[in-house]
């Protein structure tokens, strides 16, 4: 395999298998560390995601954060565009969005300053392998051009990969939080 898209596809396939196994064996309280990290950012506009398939679920943290400030979830407008973020509240009416993720029934777009980012795989340098649509890369690039934006990958530890196939357009994470550890990366210039 010499084509980067083929290499990424193979890396995703392996990571999906590791993630599915970790999800099947998930412990109670898997979001406890993420909750403790976010406690220092109460009231800051937060974007998280509605978990699909075997993604680690940030819902308990979203419910907690909503008591202190705005929480939103990503809304895909169409392929090739950055994400928009619609305000979410516990118990709000939802509808199915693209790729099966639930989104608020009523659009109320806000701009987050912290993004809890889903991922397929991560490395210890802040690299992230997503689903391949580039949505978070485009979005983080746009948000970071406007102001400091914290990107926190949320994943099972089993999703770590020491040899991610990355490209220059891939936006780095500032931190990864797993069910067992918080991994912070050096400040980027």
Please characterize this protein's 3D structure.
The chain has 189 residues and is an alpha/beta fold. The protein has a single domain, classed as Rossmann fold (3-Layer(aba) Sandwich). The chain contains four helices and eleven strands. The chain has helices at 4-24, 32-38, 59-66, 135-146, and strands at residues 46-47, 71-75, 84-88, 94-96, 102-104, 114-117, 121-122, 128-129, 150-154, 175-177, 182-184. The strands form three sheets. A seven-stranded mixed beta sheet has the order 3-2-1-6-9-10-11, with helices on both faces. A hairpin with a 5-residue loop joins strand 4 (94-96) and strand 5 (102-104). Helix 2 runs parallel beside helix 3. The longest helix is centred in the N-terminal third of the chain and has 21 residues, at 4-24. The mean pLDDT is 92. Its cofactor is Mg(2+). Belongs to the 5-formyltetrahydrofolate cyclo-ligase family. This is 5-formyltetrahydrofolate cyclo-ligase. One of its GO terms (biological process) is folic acid-containing compound biosynthetic process. It comes from Roseovarius gaetbuli.
Count of helix runs: 4
User: For the residues shown, what is the average pLDDT?
Assistant: 92
Terminal CA distance reads 33 Å
Largest sheet: 7 strands, mixed
Query: How much of the polypeptide forms β-strand, as a percent range?
Result: 15-25%
Q: List unreliable stretches of 5+ residues.
A: none
**Based on the structure, what is the oligomeric state of the protein chains?**
single chain
CATH class: Alpha Beta
């Amino acid at each position: 395999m010499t084509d980067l898209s083929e290499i990424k596809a193979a890396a995703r396939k392996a990571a999906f298998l590791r993630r599915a196994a970790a999800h099947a064996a998930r412990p109670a309280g898997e979001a406890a560390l993420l909750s403790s990290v976010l406690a220092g950012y109460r009231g800051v506009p937060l974007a998280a995601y509605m978990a699909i398939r075997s993604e680690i679920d940030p819902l308990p943290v979203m419910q907690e954060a909503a008591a202190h400030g705005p929480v939103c979830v990503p809304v895909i407008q169409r392929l090739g565009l950055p994400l928009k973020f619609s305000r979410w509240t516990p118990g709000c009416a939802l509808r199915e969005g693209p790729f099966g993720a639930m989104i608020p029934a009523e659009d109320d777009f806000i701009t987050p300053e912290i993004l809890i980012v889903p991922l397929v795989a991560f490395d210890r340098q802040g690299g992230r392998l997503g689903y391949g649509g580039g949505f978070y890369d485009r979005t983080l690039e746009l948000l970071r051009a406007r102001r400091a934006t914290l990107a926190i990958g949320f994943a099972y530890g089993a999703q770590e990969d020491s040899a991610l196939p990355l490209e220059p357009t891939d936006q780095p994470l500032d931190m990864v939080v797993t069910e067992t550890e918080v991994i912070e990366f050096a400040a980027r210039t």
